Amino acid sequence: MHHHGKHRKNKVSYLESPERRKEFSPEQLLNRIPLKESDTILDFGAGTGYFSIPAAKKIKGNLYALDIDVSMLKIIKEKALKHQLTNIVSVEGSIEALPLPKNSIDIIIASLVLHEIQPLNPLLQQMKNLLKEEGYLICLELEPKGNSEKAPRITLEGMERELKDAGLKVTEKFFPAESFYMLVAQKSD
User: Distance between CA atoms of 57 and 37, rounded to whole angstroms?
Assistant: First the structure.
């Protein structure tokens, strides 16, 4: 168990690292998303609030920070207090734990989390159900280098296929940093 704590500490330091901010600041990325002030956002696998905090500042609606790790949510709560943000709702658990009806979210941000989920389709269907008509799923992932067996990764093409199979329309894709891609997918009938 002790070992796990060390891993988490490393994960937190990476999630918060200046290198990561330099590669792509959350603000930069949020500027590329069709955000409206009235939006409701779900940060899926919110981690330390890397996106939750800057995104919550941009909206008047609620931002739901969802993570299975309660210690991560504690970090988000502390940051929200520090930034005097009252629109962040922390939710512990998986997507089923969200107290939200269908068609209630404008934007879902899923950063560095979808590659861990197998099979992905059921989750993407749940995300699609949560999204309002014309809502967006923003997916950020690391492009696998060569054949890295040690960490599960999913290529941009693979992710694009998954999103299309789930009935989402990819409207934008780009690499904010060399090994890092962002896909914007929209729910539309």
Answer: 9
